[in-house]
């Protein structure tokens, strides 16, 4: 008998995660649940076609229906959340009640900390909860711990990451491969870094720099955004001097979005226009999203660079992943959904401690890298002695 999984949400990332689980020999079943049954059915049909197996089965579940959710959770060994982040805390609570292990895509650091407060009760129930899977935080976090394992005495960790089009087209040179609200959340407010061993708040759109990558990618711009470090600064406080991350984009993106931000278009408080109340970011989404939303078959690239400086040496881990024309999964779906699935499988195999565990402590980064390489992601490492 294999492992039984419940994937909540049959959108882009949920479908990618369910697909990856259905490819594993030790998977018995994958229930793909969505409030809209037709969407879940379409997801399962695609997965079963791609895998030539019939392990994926649709189910209609509204995650706000607590009783229905707990009933579904009780039938699974591990549940995965690919629904909007604001549902995750309640789902985690339901998972505790159902005695089912759980992992999610994070997306909001404060909610993640509340999930981690379930540590003692999760241990009592004998289950594991790991928030913050996905690309970043998640896979990027794992690459940071991988880089840390390659040096003798880690002191400073720097992370750069981004999802960009393989073939950028002006004027925006960007394609959106996930939810617009998720993108805007990255660009709004502030983030936490470790600096000189202390947690500090750094606003978005600060500390601009240019970072060089091998051709054909070339030089990208990098700047601060929110949420990428998540629980890392708290976990590594007192252990590292520096822990930080920046978002990578083609040149020009920073200037465009900083202008949107400075103009107030990312704000969430409604304004009144001709007697109608509207959130500025809803207006921005209505106008801008159609211009940047990725089209079917449009190819993307995801890049993660983690650099760790130790006392006597330093290491750089680079990860590159590309759109897969055979499955038609974007790189963003692969890096996000596959990391979630990899973590769920480690949890099912009891390779993650029980309790509520930060993603940076759940599984050694080297093991995550090994699994990613099996899935065609290109990961390179480079180490140097410090002079």
Outline the fold blueprint:
Blueprint (H helix, E strand, L loop, with lengths): L2 E6 L3 H11 L4 E8 L2 H15 L4 E5 L5 H8 L4 E4 L6 H11 L2 E4 L4 H8 L2 H7 L2 E3 L4 H15 L4 E12 L14 H7 L3 E6 L2 E6 L5 E4 L6 E5 L8 H5 L5 E8 L3 H10 L8 E3 L2 E3 L1 H13 L7 E11 L2 E10 L8 H18 L6 E2 L2 H4 L2 H10 L3 E8 L2
Parallel strand pairs: 1-2, 1-4, 2-3, 4-5, 5-6, 6-17, 7-12
Antiparallel strand pairs: 7-15, 8-9, 10-11, 11-12, 13-14, 15-16, 16-18
Helix pairs in contact: 1-2, 1-12, 3-4, 4-5, 7-12, 7-14
Structure description:
The protein is of the alpha/beta class. The chain folds into 2 domains: 3-132, 3-Layer(aba) Sandwich (Rossmann fold); 136-330 and 368-385, Dihydrodipicolinate Reductase, domain 2 (2-Layer Sandwich). The protein has 14 helices and 18 strands. The chain has helices at 12-22, 37-51, 66-73, 88-98, 109-116, 119-125, 135-149, 180-186, 232-236, 253-262, 280-292, 331-348, 359-362, 365-374, and strands at residues 3-8, 27-34, 56-60, 78-81, 101-104, 128-130, 154-165, 190-195, 198-203, 209-212, 219-223, 242-249, 271-273, 276-278, 300-310, 313-322, 355-356, 378-385. The protein has a 7-stranded parallel β-sheet, sandwiched between helices. A 7-stranded mixed β-sheet has the order 10-11-12-7-15-16-18. Strand 8 and strand 9 form a beta hairpin. It is globular.
């Amino acid at each position: 008998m294999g492992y039984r999984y419940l994937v909540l949400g049959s959108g882009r990332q949920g479908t990618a995660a369910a697909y990856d689980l259905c490819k594993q020999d030790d998977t018995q079943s994958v229930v793909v649940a969505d409030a809209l049954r037709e969407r879940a059915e379409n997801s399962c049909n695609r997965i079963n076609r791609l895998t030539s197996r019939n392990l994926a089965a649709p189910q209609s579940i509204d995650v706000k229906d607590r009783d229905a959710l707990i009933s579904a959770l009780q039938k699974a060994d591990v549940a995965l959340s690919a629904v909007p982040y604001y549902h995750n805390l309640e789902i985690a609570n339901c998972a505790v009640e159902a005695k089912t292990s759980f992992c999610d895509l994070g997306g909001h650091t404060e909610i993640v900390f509340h999930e981690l407060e379930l540590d003692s009760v999760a241990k009592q129930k004998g289950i594991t909860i790991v928030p913050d899977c996905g690309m970043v935080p998640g896979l990027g976090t794992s690459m940071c711990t991988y880089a840390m394992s390659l040096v003798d005495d880690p002191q400073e960790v720097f992370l750069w990451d981004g999802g960009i089009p393989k073939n950028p087209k002006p004027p925006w040179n960007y394609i959106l491969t996930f939810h617009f609200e998720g993108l805007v959340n990255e660009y709004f407010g502030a983030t936490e870094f470790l600096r000189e061993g202390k947690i500090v708040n750094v606003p978005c759109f600060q500390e601009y720099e240019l970072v060089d990558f091998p051709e054909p990618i070339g030089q990208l711009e990098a700047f601060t955004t929110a949420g990428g470090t998540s629980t890392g600064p708290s976990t590594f406080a007192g252990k590292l001097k520096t822990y930080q991350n920046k978002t990578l984009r083609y040149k020009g993106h920073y200037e465009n979005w900083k202008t949107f931000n400075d103009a107030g278009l990312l704000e969430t408080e409604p304004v009144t226009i001709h007697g109608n109340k509207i959130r500025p970011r809803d207006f921005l989404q209505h106008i801008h999203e159609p211009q940047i939303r990725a089209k079917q078959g449009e190819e993307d690239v995801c890049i993660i660079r983690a650099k760790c400086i130790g006392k006597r040496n330093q290491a750089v881990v680079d990860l590159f992943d590309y759109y897969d024309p055979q499955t038609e999964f974007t790189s963003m779906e692969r890096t996000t959904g596959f990391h979630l699935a990899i973590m769920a499988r480690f949890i099912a195999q009891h390779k993650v401690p029980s309790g509520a565990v930060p993603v940076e402590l759940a599984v050694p980064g080297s093991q995550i890298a090994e699994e990613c390489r099996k899935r065609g992601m290109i990961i390179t490492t480079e180490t140097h002695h410090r002079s």
